[in-house]
Amino acid sequence: MNGTVGGVDAIDDGVTLMVLEDYEGDDLDVLNIEDYRAKLGEDDTEQPEVVAFYNEVGGNTRLIITGGEQTEATLKAKLSQYQGEFKLVLINEVADLTTAKMYNTVAEWATTTLYAPILVLMQANDTFIGNVTDFKTLNLAHLAVVDNVKDIDGTPLLYYVGGRLARNQVHRSIAAVRDGAIYATELYHGDSLIDNLYAEPKHNKGLITARVYVGKSGYYFSDDLMAMAATDDYALIPRRRTIDKAYRIAYKTLVDYLGAQLPVTKAGTIPVATCKDIETTVERAIYADMTVNGNLGTDSSDSDDTGVTCFINPEQDVVRTSKLEVTLKVRPYGYIKDIEVALGFSTEA
Length: 349
Fold this sequence. Notes:
Blueprint: E1 16-20, E2 28-30, H1 33-40, H2 48-57, E3 63-67, H3 72-81, E4 88-94, H4 97-112, E5 119-124, H5 126-131, E6 143-146, E7 150-151, H6 158-167, E8 187-189, E9 192-193, H7 196-204, E10 210-211, E11 220-221, H8 237-254, H9 272-289, E12 308-311, H10 318-321, E13 327-330
Parallel strand pairs: 1-3, 1-4, 4-5, 5-6
Antiparallel strand pairs: 2-3, 7-8, 8-9, 10-11, 12-13
């Protein structure tokens, strides 16, 4: 009777590709900082970017370190080599819009060709930042841009952002104050220690930077903005990561139906029962790996609400088109970006 529950394999949402131009040698595939140091060996100096990443992770997450400057061709080859396992790609010192668009093109290719979407997290250099009025107008749906901020040792903020994303569930915002301060205790732009006077215009420009809160120690991530308009569905990293995870699960579930024969009614349509069976299979897979992990918003007043709906129109003519059209929708969370309090006196008890 095995197989009636319908569980799915766990998907590791934090698998990260870190591109370091000054790293030499074969790719290094590590699980935590101790594993990294053991594989690096005593004769090699550890990369501060990797240390910052794992300081923010605070535990285990898979990281693949690769070296050299990446072109569109080499990056596509790297994604193919690892069978689409990467969920995050970290790129430092991006100098211009052409390069940024190239990385977004690769991410689109990973989605439409590998069926394995990625989020590209890149740190822009000061020249690039100065040349762009607002990164939210770039309309790069797979790209988030980090400010050119560094810790006291010169390690870019990018690797702290990447570490926090790698440790977080896909629906969690890196700007959630409850999740704690950034591991780095001092952050600089050039030689100047940053504060909110520095951070606010960078945030308004669509960059992920760091800020402080009065009464709380340490730095916090300013937001989790994508290089998209604030009105776009994918303006925030948690929405991008949530839909990407649903995409991967739906692909993994529905690919088993490719080449399969479907029964048809006398009218040439798909039996409703067949549609419902496929819908249930997809919803069950999303539920097993997303809803139960808190990745989707659900209505607490409705015990049957799973935050996912799958619909297949039984009227479609599969005999003629040989194509099955499926509509899959998942429910995101809302994220508090501002709190406004009306404060006054009351003479009532």
